[in-house]
C-alpha cells in the first residue's frame, strides 16, 4: 500500500537481491562470446558467424522488450515471478546448446540456425529480467533512484563480464573428479562454461522466487501507444536524448563483444597466456560496474547531460586509441580498463532522461522505443567490426566506433541548451 511516509526500510535489501539476480542471470548474455575461440575451431565458424552468436541475443532482447511493453507483461503477472521465470527459462534454453548439440550438428547450416534461434530465445528471456528488475527497483525507491539505477546497471555489467572469468576457472579438473564417479566422459571446456552460466541463471531464478517482492510504490500500468513512436522522434528534447543513447549503443555492445578478441590477439602476439587475456577481458567489462555507480551519483549532483558528455568523450578517445596498441599489451590493458569504466557509465542516464522528458502517460512506450532501436543498432556494429578488422586491421576498426560517441556528445550538448532540459535530474542538466 502506498503511503507518504519515509522510504521503505526494506528497499536496500530488495535492491541487493535484485542486483544479485540480475548479475547471475546476465551471465547468459556473453557466455557464448567468452568461448568463441573454442567454438570457432569446433564449429568451423567465420568471424561473421561468431558475430551472429551475439547478434541473435540482441535481436531476441529487442523483440522481447517490445513484446513485454506492448502486452504489459510486467503488469499482467507479478513482476518478481516474471523475472524468476524468465531466468529459469533462459537457463534451460542456454543449457540446451552444450547438452544436445554435437560439434558435427552445429557445423551444419540447419544446426547452426537452431543454435541462433536458441540464442535469440535466450535474449527474449533476458528482456524479462533486466527491464523488469528496473521496474521492481522503482517500486522500492522514490528518492535516490540515480544511485539505485547505477547499482542495477552495474550488476548487469558485472554479470555480462562473468563468463570471461568462468572460462579460466579449473572446470576441467572439477569435472574430471566428478564425472568418472558416475561413469561419464569429460566434456569440452566450452560446454562446461555454458553449463556454468546456465547454472548461474538457475540460481538467479531460485533466489528470485524466494526473495524478490514488489515494493509499495509499484508504477501504474502503462499502455503502449504505437502513435507515440512518431512523437518520440519529432519532439526535439526526446530526439536529442534518443540520439545520444544511439551513439552510446553504437559503441557499447561492439566493444563488449570484440574487446576480448582484441586483447587475445595482443596477448598472444606478446607471448602472454590466453587465461591472462580472459582475466583482463572480465576486468574490462566488469569494471564498468564502478563507472555506473559513480555516474549515477555524479548525475544526481551535476546533471545528466554533463555526465553523458564526459563519459562519451572518454570512451570515444579510448576507441580511437585501443586498436593501435596491440604491440603494447600492458598499455592496451590500461586503455581497455578506462574504456570499460566509461563506455557503460552513462547508460542509465539516457533512459532516465527520456523518462523525465516524455509525456508521463507514455513513459513505458518511450522507453520501449528507445531500448528496441538501441539494441537493433548494436547488431550492425557487432557484425561490422570483425569484417572491418579483417579488411582494415584493429586500429581503424575500433576507431570507427568513436563515431557513436561523437554523435552522442553533439546531441547531448544540444539537449543541454534546450529549455526543456530543466526537467532533467531536478534541474541539473
Structure described in brief:
With 429 residues, this protein is an all-alpha fold. The chain has 22 helices and no strands.
Number of helices: 22
Shape: globular
The tally of strands reads 0
How many structurally independent domains? 2
Say what the CATH topology of the largest domain is: Growth Hormone, Chain: A
Main sheet overview? none
Mean of pLDDT: 90
Textual characterization of the structure:
The chain has helices spanning about 10-25, 30-35, 35-40, 45-70, 75, 80-100, 105, 110-125, 130-140, 145-165, 170-180, 190-210, 230-235, 235-270, 275-285, 290-300, 305-320, 330-345, 345-355, 365-390, 395-400, 405-415. The chain is mainly α. The chain folds into two domains: about 10-210, MFS general substrate transporter like domains (Growth Hormone, Chain: A, Up-down Bundle); about 230-415, Growth Hormone, Chain: A, CATH 1.20.1250.20. It is globular and about 60 Å long.
Q: Which key phrases capture this entry?
A:
429 residues; mainly alpha; Growth Hormone, Chain: A; 2 domains; 22 helices
Give the helices and strands, then pairings.
Layout: H1 11-25, H2 31-34, H3 36-42, H4 47-71, H5 73-76, H6 79-100, H7 103-107, H8 109-126, H9 130-140, H10 145-167, H11 171-178, H12 189-211, H13 228-234, H14 236-269, H15 274-286, H16 288-302, H17 304-322, H18 329-345, H19 347-357, H20 363-392, H21 394-400, H22 403-416
Helix pairs in contact: 1-9, 1-10, 1-12, 4-8, 4-20, 6-8, 6-9, 6-12, 9-10, 10-12, 10-15, 10-16, 10-19, 14-15, 14-17, 14-18, 14-19, 14-20, 14-22, 15-18, 16-17, 16-18, 17-18, 17-19, 17-21, 17-22, 19-20, 20-21
Amino acid at each position: 500500500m502506498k503511503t507518504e511516509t519515509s522510504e521503505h526500510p526494506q528497499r536496500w535489501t530488495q535492491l541487493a537481491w535484485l542486483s544479485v539476480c540480475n548479475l547471475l542471470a546476465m551471465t547468459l548474455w556473453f557466455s557464448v562470446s567468452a568461448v568463441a575461440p573454442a567454438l570457432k575451431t569446433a564449429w568451423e565458424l567465420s568471424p561473421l558467424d561468431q558475430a551472429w552468436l551475439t547478434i541473435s541475443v540482441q535481436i531476441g532482447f529487442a523483440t522481447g522488450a517490445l513484446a513485454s511493453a506492448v502486452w504489459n507483461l510486467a503488469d499482467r503477472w507479478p513482476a518478481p515471478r516474471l523475472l524468476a521465470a524468465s531466468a529459469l527459462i533462459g537457463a534451460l534454453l542456454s543449457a540446451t546448446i552444450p547438452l544436445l548439440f554435437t560439434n558435427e550438428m552445429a557445423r551444419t547450416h540447419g544446426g547452426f540456425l537452431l543454435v541462433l534461434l536458441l540464442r535469440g530465445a535466450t535474449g527474449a528471456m533476458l528482456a524479462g529480467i533486466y527491464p523488469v528488475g528496473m521496474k521492481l527497483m522503482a517500486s522500492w525507491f522514490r528518492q535516490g533512484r540515480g544511485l539505485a539505477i547505477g547499482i542495477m546497471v552495474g550488476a548487469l555489467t558485472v554479470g555480462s563480464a562473468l563468463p570471461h572469468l568462468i572460462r579460466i576457472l579449473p572446470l576441467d579438473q572439477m569435472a574430471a573428479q566428478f564425472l568418472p564417479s558416475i561413469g561419464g566422459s569429460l566434456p569440452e571446456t566450452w560446454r562446461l562454461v555454458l553449463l556454468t552460466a546456465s547454472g548461474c541463471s538457475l540460481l538467479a531464478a531460485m533466489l528470485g522466487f524466494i526473495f524478490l517482492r514488489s515494493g509499495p510504490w509499484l508504477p501504474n500500468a502503462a499502455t503502449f501507444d504505437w502513435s507515440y513512436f512518431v512523437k518520440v522522434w519529432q519532439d526535439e528534447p526526446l530526439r536529442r536524448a534518443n540520439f545520444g543513447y544511439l551513439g552510446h549503443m553504437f559503441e557499447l555492445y561492439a566493444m563488449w563483444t570484440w574487446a576480448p578478441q582484441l586483447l587475445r590477439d595482443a596477448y598472444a602476439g606478446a607471448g602472454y597466456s590466453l587465461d591472462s587475456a580472459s582475466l583482463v577481458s572480465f576486468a574490462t567489462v566488469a569494471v564498468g560496474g564502478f563507472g555506473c555507480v559513480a555516474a549515477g551519483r555524479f548525475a544526481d549532483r551535476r546533471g545528466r547531460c554533463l555526465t553523458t558528455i564526459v563519459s562519451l568523450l572518454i570512451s570515444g578517445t579510448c576507441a580511437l586509441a585501443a586498436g593501435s596498441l596491440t604491440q603494447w599489451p600492458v598499455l592496451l590493458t590500461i586503455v581497455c580498463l578506462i574504456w570499460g569504466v566509461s563506455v557503460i557509465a552513462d547508460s542509465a542516464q539516457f533512459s532516465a532522461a527520456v523518462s523525465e522528458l516524455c509525456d508521463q502517460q507514455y513513459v513505458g512506450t518511450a522507453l520501449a522505443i528507445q531500448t528496441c532501436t538501441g539494441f537493433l543498432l548494436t547488431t550492425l556494429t557487432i557484425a561490422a567490426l570483425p569484417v572491418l578488422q579483417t579488411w582494415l586491421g584493429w586500429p581503424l576498426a575500433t576507431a570507427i566506433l568513436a563515431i557513436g560517441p561523437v554523435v552522442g556528445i553533439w546531441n547531448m550538448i544540444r539537449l543541454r541548451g534546450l529549455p526543456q532540459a530543466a526537467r532533467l535530474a531536478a534541474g541539473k542538466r
